[in-house]
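User: Show me a protein chain along with its predicted structure.
Assistant: Here is one chain, sequence first, then structure tokens.
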Amino acid sequence: MKIKLVSIAMILALTAGFNANAFHSDKESDCAEKSHGKHGQKMRGHKMGFDIRDIVTEYMLAQGDITQGEIDLKKAEHKSTREALKALKDSGDIEALEAKKDELEDKREENRDKVKAYIDSHEELQALIKEKKKEFREKRKERRKEKREERKAKKAAMEEESSTES
């Protein structure tokens, strides 16, 4: 009886346009689907932001404004902060977790303002960032052009295939 009900429910769902995976409670597949964007493509991160951060850090290091020890210290601090957030989350102390997140957000805004001021005060660094952005845009434009050509070729092949079948 239970199998018949599930079968009927699946048939109704499929005829209504639902996916049969909606009946599965497989957590792995749910997580895998969330990590992909539209049409199964992997979601893109903020790659450009990391490149700029690297440029600024390298420039500051070359200018002697920071030392490698300070960079390593910031990395270790970031790692310990992430571990502290995870511990707060695991403990279930929501108020402490939110307070820590607010504190970190304030710290991040303060750091962002400092970095912006540093960039604004160094024209050579601004030129490096501008050049990196230009390279990024050119690469993105080229990738889009290649994808467009691939789609056109695929469409032409499909049209040719359908015309030969007719």
